[in-house]
Amino acid sequence: MSLEYRKWLTFSTFVLIAGLLWFFFKYKEVYTQHVAVDVLWVNVPSNVKIKDGLSYQLDVELTGNGFNLLKASYVAPIVELDFQKYVYKNGDYFFDPKSVMGSLKTQLSNNYKIGYVSEELIIIKVDEFISKKVGLKSKIKTVYEDNYLPVVSPYFIPDSVVITGNDLLIKDLDMLEVSHIDVAIKDTLVIKHIDLVELYPDIKVEPSNVDYVIKSAVMTEGAFMVPVDVINNKDNVAVKIIPSEVEVVFNCKLQEYEMIDVSDFKAIVDYNDLSEDYNLITTDVKILSDKVSSIRFSPQQIQILVMR
Fold first, then answer.
1. What top-level class would CATH report for the domain 219-306?
2. With 60 as the cut, is the pLDDT of residue 23 above it?
3. What is the pTM assigned to this prediction?
4. Residue partners of 61: CB distance under 8 A and separation at least 6
């Protein structure tokens, strides 16, 4: 290594060290300067969206050491501000920077002292959408297997949602149809978790997930011969009923079969439905037990003969 090169290297090293020392001593001092602080809006209402491509900054006077201020000059500090707390609507949406001094101090006080914030009102450019509550309508096919039958009609939890989106799309939408692959029922309780965002990607749905609940039970059939009663025969006119009984076939849960008897059904015909002394009248069968899920009966009509 030549002497000239060693002199140049020594000189360069001293210059570099001197520069680093100057930089360190200069920027460890406390300075005050105006810095642009980026705003990140949180808690924005579901029917409002900040216009794409727009950002908002506050002109804030910060006091701090030179290193932090130098960093802030290249990478703007970020503060989170509650949209619903600090933005108000008066035709347009407005934001008063003076109102957030407390939030600025809370979020930036670790590195800076806040001295000033711009006082000029800021207009927040947004897109507004329609929001409304709608019910859910099932388009899900349920296939009951192995003697399972529904105890109640399948239902959603929750049974309604709030939708937000394009005016034309939302305006005439009063019910949200929910589809899913066919559901085979082989158990007493089946719950399907459904993501509404996948079904409706163009609108906002809250909540975005719902449960479809299907309650069923293993069912069995039984039958009774139920005597037919005549109602509204105010004058106690003698009548003959042919036949005097109807066969009622019922469905119930297997474990409740032994709890059901003939007294849980009432077959009636209405005397007021007679139009002549001999007539066919439609039979009505009432279910008197909540343990019975469904019935069918025959005959559907019986003959009434008035005895004169």
1. mainly beta
2. no
3. 0.50
4. 32, 33, 34, 35, 114, 115, 116, 117
